[in-house]
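Weekly sync, protein design subgroup
Attendees: M.S., D.O., the rotation student, P.L. (late)

Item 1: inverse folding check
M.S. brought a backbone from last month's batch and wanted to see whether the design step gives back something sensible before we order anything. D.O. pointed out we never logged the input encoding, so this time it goes straight into the notes. C-alpha cells as presented (528 positions):
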C-alpha cells in the first residue's frame, strides 16, 4: 500500500514530515517524497487529500477489562446527585428479576450538592430486593446497599481490611461505602458476566477505542478471565488492536500464573503480557490517596497505603527476575515517596541498567521527589485529563503549597524524563485528543473555562509524543512502534485536522478518518 499526498509526521528523532508512506508486509518500507518512490502497477494507492497522519496513538494507562464491564452494567456518569443516581438504580430494579445483582459505575460525589459520600439507605429505598454495588468513577470506592452488604457478610463486627475502609455511621453500622481493598469483600459474591457477554463487550470497546483514534493501550491490572477473552478474540480474528498488559498484582491467581509462565506475546504481538501492576494507595477523589500530611478538607485523614514499601520492593525484585516490567499506582505524595524509596532499594540490591520501572499517575509529588524519577531512571505514567477533571476541587484537598506538586508535567520534563500519556479509562474518556488538549492547554474542553497552573503545560510535540514515541519506550517497544520509521510496524492514524497546526480549541474534536494496524485498515470514518 502507498499512502500519499499527506502531511505524515513520522516522529523520528529529526522530526521528518513526509508526504508519502509505503507499507509492505505490515511494516513501513519508505517514508519520504512521492517523487522518490515508484509503486508497482498493482499497488494500492491511498490519496490522503492533504490530511495529517501520525503513528498509531497508544494510551499508556487504560483498563479495557473495566471498560468492558462498564458496558454490561449501569452507567452513572453525569448523575447530578445521590438521588438522581438512585433513580437510575430504581429503573433498573423495576426490570430485573428479584434477587438479581445490580452493578454499576461512574458516580462522583464531588459533583453532588454538599459533595458528601452516599449511603446504603438511599439504595435500600429504591432496590430493597436486589443486591446493589456501584463503583465510584475512579474505581477506588463502592456504594452498596444492605442486600449486597449482607451477601458479602459485611456487618458491624466486620474489621477493616488492610489498605481498606468500611464506612460507618455514628453507631458503628456500615454506611454502604467501601474504600479501596474493602471493595474486595464484595468481589467474591458479585457475579461476573458470561464469557459470551464479556467477549461481546470487549469487541464493542475496541471499536470505540479505534473510533477515538487509538491503535493500542497499556492495560493496567488485567486478570486471567480478561486475558482468556483476548485469546478467544485473537483466535477468531476479532482483536484489531494492540494491548501491552500489566497483569493485576492484586489478583493472587493472576500473578501466580504469570510468575510461573513469564512474559508472553499473542497474535503477532497484538497482545503482549509484559508487566506487573501494583497498587500503593487509593485515589484523591475518594480521599484514599496516601499523603504525608492530612487532607486539608478532612484533617483526620491522610489516605490509605495499600501496599507497604517492603512488599513493593519484594515484588519489584521478583517480577524483574522473571523478565517483567513493574508499574506501581501511586497518587498521593506519601505513596510516591514510598514507591521511589522501594525502587531505589530494589535497584541497589539488583541493579538493572534498563529496568524502565514505572510509577502510574505520579499525581502529587513533593519537591524533593521530582528529580528522583530521572536519577533512578523511573518513568512517570500520567493522565493529563485527570488534571482538568480534578482542578475544581484538588486545591481544597491539598492546600496551596502541596497543590504546586500536583500534575507537575513540566517540572518532571525539565529533569529529562519522558512522560507516558494516557487517560485511565473508564475513569476518563479513552479519546487521546482530549488528553493532548488537556496537556497543551491545562484547562477543560469548555472554551470558556479558565486554565490552571499554566506553567506546567506541555508543548504540542511533547503531548503527541506522550501518546506515541514515549509510550513505545515506556513499554519497551520502541524498536517496533511509536514512529513511522523504516522497518517499524505500520500503525498509522490519518486525522480530520492537523494536531500540530490547528487552533488549540479544535484539538479535542480531532478524530481519525483512516486507521491502519500493521498496514491493515481497521477503521475508516465511513465504517469498517
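Designed sequence read out in the meeting:
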Amino acid at each position: 500500500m502507498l499512502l500519499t499526498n499527506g502531511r505524515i509526521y513520522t516522529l523520528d528523532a529529526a522530526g521528518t514530515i513526509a508526504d508519502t508512506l509505503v507499507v509492505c508486509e505490515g511494516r513501513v518500507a519508505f517514508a519520504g517524497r512521492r517523487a522518490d518512490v515508484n509503486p508497482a502497477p498493482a499497488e494500492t494507492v491511498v490519496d490522503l487529500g492533504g490530511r495529517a497522519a501520525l503513528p498509531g496513538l497508544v494510551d499508556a494507562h487504560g483498563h479495557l477489562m473495566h471498560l468492558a464491564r462498564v458496558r454490561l452494567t449501569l452507567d452513572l456518569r453525569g448523575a447530578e446527585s445521590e438521588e438522581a443516581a438512585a433513580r437510575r438504580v430504581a429503573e433498573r430494579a423495576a426490570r430485573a428479576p428479584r434477587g438479581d445483582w445490580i452493578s454499576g459505575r461512574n458516580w462522583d460525589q464531588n459533583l453532588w450538592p454538599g459533595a458528601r459520600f452516599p449511603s446504603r439507605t438511599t439504595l435500600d429505598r429504591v432496590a430493597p430486593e436486589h443486591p446493589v454495588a456501584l463503583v465510584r468513577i475512579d474505581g477506588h470506592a463502592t456504594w452498596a446497599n444492605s442486600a449486597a452488604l449482607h451477601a458479602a457478610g459485611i456487618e458491624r463486627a466486620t474489621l477493616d481490611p488492610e489498605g481498606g475502609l468500611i464506612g460507618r455511621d455514628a453507631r458503628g453500622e456500615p454506611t454502604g461505602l467501601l474504600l479501596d481493598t474493602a471493595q474486595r469483600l464484595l468481589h467474591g459474591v458479585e457475579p461476573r458476566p458470561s464469557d459470551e457477554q464479556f467477549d461481546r463487550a470487549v469487541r464493542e470497546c475496541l471499536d470505540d477505542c479505534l473510533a477515538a483514534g487509538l491503535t493500542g493501550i497499556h492495560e493496567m491490572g488485567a486478570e486471567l478471565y480478561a486475558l482468556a477473552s483476548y485469546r478467544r478474540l485473537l483466535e477468531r480474528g476479532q482483536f484489531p488492536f494492540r494491548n501491552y498488559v500489566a497483569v493485576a498484582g492484586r489478583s493472587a491467581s493472576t500473578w501466580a500464573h504469570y510468575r510461573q509462565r513469564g512474559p508472553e506475546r499473542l497474535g503477532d504481538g497484538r497482545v503482549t503480557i509484559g508487566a506487573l501492576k501494583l497498587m500503593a494507595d487509593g485515589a484523591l477523589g475518594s480521599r484514599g490517596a496516601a499523603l504525608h500530611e492530612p487532607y486539608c478538607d478532612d484533617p483526620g485523614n491522610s489516605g490509605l497505603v495499600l501496599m507497604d514499601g517492603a512488599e513493593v520492593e519484594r515484588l519489584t525484585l521478583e517480577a524483574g527476575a522473571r523478565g517483567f516490567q513493574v508499574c506501581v499506582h501511586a497518587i498521593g505524595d506519601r505513596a510516591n515517596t514510598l514507591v521511589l524509596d522501594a525502587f531505589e532499594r530494589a535497584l541497589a540490591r539488583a541493579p538493572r541498567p534498563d529496568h524502565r520501572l514505572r510509577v502510574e499517575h505520579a499525581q502529587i509529588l513533593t519537591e524533593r521527589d521530582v528529580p528522583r524519577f530521572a536519577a533512578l531512571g523511573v518513568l512517570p505514567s500520567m493522565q493529563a485529563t485527570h488534571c482538568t477533571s480534578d482542578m475544581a476541587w484538588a486545591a481544597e484537598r491539598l492546600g496551596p503549597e502541596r497543590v504546586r506538586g500536583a500534575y507537575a508535567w513540566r517540572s518532571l520534563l525539565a529533569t529529562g524524563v519522558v512522560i507516558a500519556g494516557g487517560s485511565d479509562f473508564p475513569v476518563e474518556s479513552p479519546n487521546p485528543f482530549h488528553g493532548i488538549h488537556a496537556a497543551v492547554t491545562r484547562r477543560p474542553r469548555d472554551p470558556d473555562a479558565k486554565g490552571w497552573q499554566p506553567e506546567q503545560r506541555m508543548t504540542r510535540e511533547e503531548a503527541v509524543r506522550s501518546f506515541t514515541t514515549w509510550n513505545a519506550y515506556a513499554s519497551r517497544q520502541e524498536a517496533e512502534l511509536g514512529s513511522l520509521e523504516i522497518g517499524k510496524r505500520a500503525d498509522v492514524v490519518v486525522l480530520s485536522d492537523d494536531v500540530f497546526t490547528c487552533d488549540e480549541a479544535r484539538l479535542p474534536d480531532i478524530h481519525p478518518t483512516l486507521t491502519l494496524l500493521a498496514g491493515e485498515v481497521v477503521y475508516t470514518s465511513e465504517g469498517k
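Discussion: Residues 397 and 444 are 19 Å apart (CA to CA). The radius of gyration is 23 Å.
Action: P.L. to compare against the previous round before Friday.
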